[in-house]
Amino acid sequence: MNGLTAWDRVELARSAERPTSLDYINYIFDDFIELHGDRYFGDDNAIVGGIAYLKGMPVTVIAQQKGRTTEENIKRNFGMPNPEGYRKAYRLMEQAEKFNRPVIHFVDTPGAYPGIGAEERGQGEAIAKNLMLMSGLKVPIISIVVGEGGSGGALAQAVADKVYMLENAIYSILSPEGFATILWKDANLKKEAAEMMKLTAKDLYQLKVIDGVINEPIGGMKVEDTLVFENIKYKLIKDLTELKKLKKNKLVDLRYKKYREMGKYDD
Amino acid sequence: MAIKDYLTKTKADFKKYQSRNQVREYRKSMGNKNLYVKCRKCNNSMYYKDIEQNNFVCTCGEYFRMHAKDRLNMIIDSTFIEFGSYEEFVNPLDFKDYNKKITGARTTSELDEAVITGYASIGGVRTVVIVMDSHFMMGSMGSVVGQKITRAVERATRHNYPVVAFIASGGARMQEGIMSLMQMAKTSAAFQRHHAAGNLYIPILTNPTYGGVTASFAMLGDIIIAEPNAMIGFAGKLVIEQTIKQELPEGFQTSEFLLEKGFIDLIVKREDLRDRLAKLLQLHKEAK
To answer: Does the interface ipTM go beyond 0.95?
Structure first.
């Protein structure tokens, strides 16, 4: 899909016609059992997590979930997690490590929710703890950005051995609107911001922030595009088969080195 | 020039600088330490030297922002051995005029970047010290800041030294886009290894501590200290207000608020910080 501007892709990534994380989960995995709650405060519907089979292999699946209708979006808080969502993810990742299950993340969020309650319950701390846990987790982690990868709220589920993006997904430090507002004091420059932020899958692959791009049909991903679901499933199986062969320390070392290289300028 | 005229001039000039609350720049620009500074809270004017001797705290209790080197002087025993300091510059987004911005920040702050790192001893305990400085592009974290912190923490892990870190940051360095986001992962990973090896990490949150820095190493301490009345949070006040369309409660996101909500261990005044750090470091050393 050449000829699309970065802003075109921002709009595709946010499109309500796009499959949500649960669409991917229901197609790719068998017997998905959703597990709830962070054990401290509540259950965040913006993050869905559970256990399932991937072609017979037990895995833990954790996903940021948007809605399609207004009603669904209110339930899912427009895919913007609160601290209890990240803490649920934390709990399920620790559980995955205990039972030696790989973890698969689906990322699709405008960002972590900026609200009073979120601050009171330590949004920053919740995200930070996930980054720390994921950098040392002794089971394979794969993250797929399927829609919006909004800032620290996305990164909290994207410190992984392999990070993939769908062709029209985006991943950035903040929204193009926010970027334009902060740096140029004008949210109307969002298109220019999108161009320069290097937020497309292709740009991020070139920057080595992600490990691969998953192609989409022309016009962007739709729920009925099962071929793409199949491709993702195949990729997950292939990668996990390889990653599971690695010794645990080697796996963690490789992950550490990968992030150690990012933004490196010397030594 | 008569002394009277001189004072009049400096007071007028000071107004210009007061808006930016940059006491040090003011002093430097006048090339003289014997000048008045004005507290923006109580409006009292006082000698810079007096403020300096009082750990940059006004007699009314208001905390001035501090430069990294002054913070070091406030807590270390004697010498500080700085790790490689670089005139490095990376511009992953080819952001226009970013290099000029960095050059400007280097001139006004006398720093190469928004953080300095090195060895020092505190209360006789050999420690790796990380000091962020909000006078350099609001202490924002880009690739160089992330790399310097990561390397410092790796050194601490290698030698089993504790890490003491002054946090002062508005968050990620927007000009570096996604690469500044990745520094959150990179620094957290370095602290994970330091943590897993059983080493002590004490961050000291100062005004401001926000965004990607809060959501990474600022909140990963074993014991988290904050200065009184510092502003600490993930999302900025404006963003929250715009999202929820209501005003925020009084005292929201202050150190005292975080203590009440259970996210920091201690609020320590500057005058007590040296002793408190020394005790904590010694106690952990003895247990080893």
So the answer is: yes
